[in-house]
Automatic annotation (TrEMBL):
<dbReference type="GO" id="GO:0016020">
    <property type="term" value="C:membrane"/>
</dbReference>
<dbReference type="InterPro" id="IPR001190">
    <property type="entry name" value="SRCR"/>
</dbReference>
<feature type="domain" description="SRCR">
    <location>
        <begin position="209"/>
        <end position="305"/>
    </location>
</feature>
<feature type="disulfide bond">
    <location>
        <begin position="176"/>
        <end position="186"/>
    </location>
</feature>
<feature type="disulfide bond">
    <location>
        <begin position="145"/>
        <end position="206"/>
    </location>
</feature>
<feature type="disulfide bond">
    <location>
        <begin position="276"/>
        <end position="286"/>
    </location>
</feature>
<dbReference type="Pfam" id="PF00530">
    <property type="entry name" value="SRCR"/>
</dbReference>
<feature type="domain" description="SRCR">
    <location>
        <begin position="1"/>
        <end position="101"/>
    </location>
</feature>
<feature type="domain" description="SRCR">
    <location>
        <begin position="104"/>
        <end position="207"/>
    </location>
</feature>
<feature type="disulfide bond">
    <location>
        <begin position="68"/>
        <end position="78"/>
    </location>
</feature>
<keyword id="KW-0325">Glycoprotein</keyword>
<comment type="function">
    <text>Binds to extracellular matrix proteins. Binds to pathogen-associated molecular patterns (PAMPs) present on the cell walls of Gram-positive and Gram-negative bacteria and fungi, behaving as a pattern recognition receptor (PRR). Induces bacterial and fungal aggregation and subsequent inhibition of PAMP-induced cytokine release. Does not possess intrinsic bactericidal activity. May play a role in the innate defense and homeostasis of certain epithelial surfaces.</text>
</comment>
<keyword id="KW-1015">Disulfide bond</keyword>
<keyword id="KW-0732">Signal</keyword>
<keyword id="KW-0675">Receptor</keyword>
<protein>
    <recommendedName>
        <fullName>Soluble scavenger receptor cysteine-rich domain-containing protein SSC5D</fullName>
    </recommendedName>
</protein>
<dbReference type="InterPro" id="IPR036772">
    <property type="entry name" value="SRCR-like_dom_sf"/>
</dbReference>
Length: 314
């Protein structure tokens, strides 16, 4: 919250039906790394203490004494003090914050949810090869779509569909399970160890939908991308069937939220009176109407739960 962009700001958690901040006692890069991973923003580059991003909305300190190993997927999985917060040690002037840097990006697409996949290694951006021992496929692409904050994958692209790069080719033989939080954690060749050419640069086309201001990548205000601009959805008629479609598109399970539950958005409101049956694969396939009587106090939201694929053991 209140950061320079969506990958920096004050850390807030939703607990006991209320949003609150995290005390900065012991707050370090391992803790920040978990937050950055949870919100889909790559690696932590800096920790902030002492209410650097503001004191919050007046809610209580929800967590203190956080001690993450750094490998956890969620902040709630980290060790923390269970006791009551001592106001002489922690108050809202000691709110913890993070600055994250995404190490994966999409380039040369029609919007921020499509393009050539590029990864940052040793401070340099490079591409991903679509071939090798394993070929670039939709499972690999889905990890990227989730990582960059977009919806489900539409299509994995190969043979430099989004144009050729001129920098290093960092990864080849990529093989993701689908569980990874970043394509950098997928199985692959060693960094830069390949004989690929840039005519084999991999790309991805993702659904132009995301959720923001929630506690993780599966909850928040629903935003859709149209004409190059992100805009919200009005909550007229917004229900569980509609939320089910959004959550399926994001690869999650669902709960509908109305009345700008996650805060008011800005910019256009793209959809109104959404009426999904519930089995649509994308929100844009649902019926709806043009916006006439909505404002951002009526922004629709969802709370989803990440669905993990099942694997057989042999």
């Amino acid at each position: 919250m209140d950061g320079l962009d969506s990958c920096s700001g004050r850390v807030e958690v939703f607990k006991d039906g209320q949003w609150g901040t995290v005390c900065d006692d012991g707050w370090d890069l391992s803790d920040a790394a978990v937050v950055c991973r949870e919100v889909g923003c790559g690696d932590a580059t800096e920790v902030k203490r002492g209410g650097n991003f503001g004191r919050g909305s007046g809610g209580p300190i929800k967590i203190h004494g956080v001690n993450c190993a750094g490998s956890e997927l969620m902040l709630s999985s980290c060790v923390s003090d269970d006791g009551a917060v001592d106001p002489s040690v922690c108050d809202i002037s000691k709110s913890a914050g993070v600055i994250c840097q995404s190490l994966v990006r999409l380039v040369n697409g029609d919007n921020s949810c499509s393009g050539r996949v590029e990864v940052n290694h040793d401070g340099r951006w490079g591409t991903v090869c679509d071939s090798g021992l394993y070929s670039w496929d939709s499972i690999d692409g889905q990890v990227v779509c989730r990582e960059v904050g977009c919806g489900d994958i539409i299509r994995a692209e190969v043979t430099a569909y989004f144009g050729q790069c001129s920098g290093p080719i960092w990864l080849s033989s990529v093989r993701c399970s689908g569980l990874e939080t970043t394509v950098r954690y997928c199985g692959s060749s060693s960094w830069g160890d390949n004989i690929c050419q840039h005519e084999s640069d991999a790309g991805v086309l993702c659904e132009p939908i995301k959720v923001v201001n929630g506690s993780n990548q599966c909850s928040g205000t629903v935003l859709i991308l149209r004409d190059g601009r992100w805009g919200s959805v009005c909550d007229n008629g917004w229900d569980v069937a509609d939320a089910q479609v959004v959550c399926r598109e994001l690869g999650c399970a669902r709960e509908a939220k109305r009345g700008a539950y996650f805060g008011e958005g800005s910019g256009p409101i793209w959809m109104n009176n959404v009426n999904c049956v519930g089995d649509e694969s994308i929100l844009s396939a649902c019926s709806g109407s043009s916006v006439s009587s909505c404002d951002h106090t009526m922004d629709a939201g969802v709370i989803c739960r990440r669905k993990l694929p099942c694997f057989k053991t042999f």
